[in-house]
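Pair request: fold both.
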Amino acid sequence: MCFSAIASFSAGTVLTAAGIVTTQKVSTKSQLAFAAIPLLFGIQQLCEGFVWLSLTRQQYAHWQQAATHAFLFFAHALWPVWVPFAALLFETKQPQKTIIFGFFILGLLLSLGEIYCLSAYHVESRIYGKHIEYLITYPRPFVAVSEIVYGIVTLVPCFISSLKTMRWFAIVLAASLVLTAIFYQAWLISVWCFFAALLSIIIYRILALQNIISRQAA
């Protein structure tokens, strides 16, 4: 997260605990990938906590590359495939399921590209303006395309879902992205991931409401 190691570790601990509780809220296996989002965000925030330690304490400097790559794996490679995958499993209607599957394939291709770039190009992190800035040397054409595709595959599948509760999640994610882009453009990766992580706690409520709706419809 963008303020300190303590903040990152605190957020990571809370989210990990919340994620464990949320995964226990599922009523069907198809909800598990969606329910696991807070848990995965918690692990991601813990990774950034180690990035902070490596940048602020000399005795942990040797962790910097591993912690930076771990955080960027979650931020760049995991979410573009996990979000459409979770939406695909959660979806109950075939027309939407078919469309979301297309976004899942697109997200999978993006994730594979991101994994390749993480392994082939130099990346590093630094503290800039009291926030963590990630310096990435990917080819510029790939960066330009990946940013657009990333936004599409992480937001659109939730918006087109037939489940109203899933669209709520998409709205808060989109709002957090817009606000982060306006106020924290230089640290977009770090700050948006933090806000999205906190917002993922609402998944518990979404699952609870969806299960109530399902029982009433049965």
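--- second member of the pair ---
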Amino acid sequence: MDLVELLILGLLGLVGGVISGLIGVGGGVFFVPALIFAVGWDIQHAVAASLVVIIFASLSGTLRNLRSQNPVDLGAATLLSLTVAPAALIGVAISRVSSEALVETVFALVLLAIAYPTARGGSSDVSEARIKIPAVVTVVAGVAIGTLSGLVGVGGGILMVPLMVLGLNLRPKVAIATSLAVAFFTGIVGTVGYVATGFNDFASLPPLVVGSIVGAWLSVRVRNRTPDKALRVIFAVFMVVVALYLLLG
């Protein structure tokens, strides 16, 4: 890896960390397409790297939440970690036996599915919804989210938060904190799966990880000065453009 690629990876980590901190969307939504287009990696390589970054990003967020007024709900975190995290191995297995085009198509569809809730603001008003999800459906949905996480490298927070609010009756801010804890374990399991099936490019990971940590720290500094709605809409448009490129390119 030359100096230029090292700088590009560090910059991508920085931008991804800032985006995650500012608008609450997991870095995988940014990292996977960024690594494909800016560095030229194949999608399986990018997904594996994204899961590693998710480990550190979610751990950092979870540690910050330990002292917050909205701590992790241990019961919900345990339940979903036992369903979402192991299911990531299903996604890894599917990725390894599927063509790159199929994985890119699934990733594009995931981007399209979460673009609108991202633009709206995610789970800020989901607690007002009248629909309630049965607990058994919550568990089954958790398995599906874990499979997607392992397949396309997205932590699943934007899907897990409304699931926990509507299915486990958690307050939105508690659900957000809990989703970070679940994403931590999902990232570990998914990473182990990719390492066991051949991923070994660890030299490229430090600049991504360090950049994302610095970016998350910077986002805290600028969050109150940034128009949240505009950022969400811009990033949602970015996701739609990437999705259409993957589907039509």
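Observation on the second member. DSSP finds ten helices and no strands in the chain.
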